[in-house]
Design a protein that fits this description.
The chain is mostly beta strands and about 120 residues long. The chain is about 0% helix and about 50% strand. A 6-stranded mixed β-sheet has the order 2-10-9-4-5-6, with no helix packed on it. The chain is globular and about 40 Å long.
Length: about 120
């Protein structure tokens, strides 16, 4: 069973930046794509970004494309989400998760709050 530990969230003003980190442990992630997701109050969890095992392929939700960048360091079992030019609508709890996995549990997430 995987353990996922997200960190780096906090409060930031609109237009600012944050860098989220996610450390994965518990099993091998060789060949596993990873994703970032978020859940705002009263809303369903939604996809934000994903990255292939090699890091060579990335994709983003339209709402964050051009502002957020996903990356990974496989030697550290860590995935990052660089958030630039944040907006109040980016306020949510952010989670990382093996992309497409239905068997792995979710971590606690990290809260991001953007004020206008």
């Amino acid at each position: 069973q995987v353990q996922l530990a997200e960190s780096g969230g906090g409060s930031v003003q609109a237009g600012g930046s944050l860098r989220l980190s996610c450390v994965a442990s518990g099993r091998s992630f060789s060949g596993v794509a990873m994703g970032w997701f978020r859940q705002a109050p009263g809303k369903e969890r939604e996809f934000v970004a994903r990255i292939s095992w090699s890091g060579g392929i990335t994709s983003y939700a339209d709402s964050v494309a051009g502002r957020f960048t996903i990356s990974r360091d496989n030697a550290k079992n860590t995935v990052y989400l660089q958030m630039n030019r944040v907006k109040p609508e980016d306020t949510a709890v952010y989670y990382c998760h093996p992309y497409g996995s239905e068997n792995d549990s979710w971590g606690q997430g990290t809260q991001v709050t953007v004020s206008s």
